[in-house]
Amino acid sequence: MEQRRFYATSPYPIALYRRFLEQALAFRRCEIRPFTEASFGDGPRARLYVRHDIDTAACVANTPALLEIDRELGIPAAVYVRVDDEDYPAESCRAMVSRCHEIGLEVGLHTACYTHDDSFAAFSDELDKFTTLFGFSPLSFTMHGLGTKRQLERQDFCAKIIKSMKKYGLRFTDCRPEFRNYDYVIEDCHLEGGGSNQRFLYNDVYRIPKFFRPSRDYLFLTHPCYWT
Ligand SMILES: [Zn+2]
After folding, report:
1. In this model, does residue 107 exceed pLDDT 80?
2. 145 alpha carbon to ligand 1 midpoint, in Å?
3. What is the mean pLDDT of residues 42-57?
4. FRET pair for 190, CA 20 to 30 Å: which of 37, 145, 166, 200?
5. Is residue 132 part of a domain?
6. In this structure, is residue 1 part of a structural domain?
7. Distance 38 CA to ligand 1 centre (A)
8. What is the Å distance from ligand 1's center to 28 Cα?
């Protein structure tokens, strides 16, 4: 695997987001697939999935700009929103969620339910709240990470939830390799050391990695707050 190198600290120009996707579309070795599709074994190309995690109020504000690029380029991305009201009121996502539906993008739940002692009760409450707020039940979810905080609880929740997906009306998550096992994740939220809390990305966003291999799954994960 070629050595990745530091490329830029956030915020990143949105032109870089577009540039990455245009490269991916032109790269014959890979294809961008709908985020929630089931794994389908062997294929002639690498499979790249695009996921937006809406972590903060700044993410809510910046998401429409990324969505317009997804729409223009026909990227089958998926958007994951929180309903825990911790960093933004869930209601503030309503317009963005409708826009996703207009352009045919999947919207699901982004959850940190494992921070509660009864993570399943919290998860169930979040699913209900999501349904009430947005008018449909989520079919997929992703996990909101908090570094090493309650890591064991998080792993435990993921291991259990994948056995009860149907019970919760869910079809897909990428939190366990049973559903999808990423060979490599390109993300915009690498954390600089030294307690600066500064986020950065590697040159894997500037130049799409050459090491993508057929039949393997790759993720391009964004947090729209870092893009302007
Ligand atoms: Zn998150």
Report:
1. yes
2. 5
3. 95
4. 37
5. yes
6. no
7. 22
8. 31
